[in-house]
Please model this.
Amino acid sequence: MSEQSSRLARVAGVGAAVVALGIAGVAATGCGSDDESDSINNAIDSIQLQASSVQSQISSAATNVQSQAESVKTQVQSQAESVQSQISTATSDSGGYGY
Model:
């Protein structure tokens, strides 16, 4: 589960970086007037901020999934121990025959 979360976070991070670099490359060509350059730079800044936010959200979601998985694992182990204890008690109460 954590391997999938880690992979998802890496893919999202790489995707965001590629988009930001592509836009930065277009802006670096110097096409257009200063107003257009300012607009492009503002768009780049906005996209980079959004990409950072998405990456943070993905990281947070992956952490939450991992935490929930650990919690479920602990609950399952606890239930299994409880059932084993009940079986042990039932078999010892009935002389070892289980009924």
User: Anything to note?
Assistant: The chain has a mean pLDDT of 79.
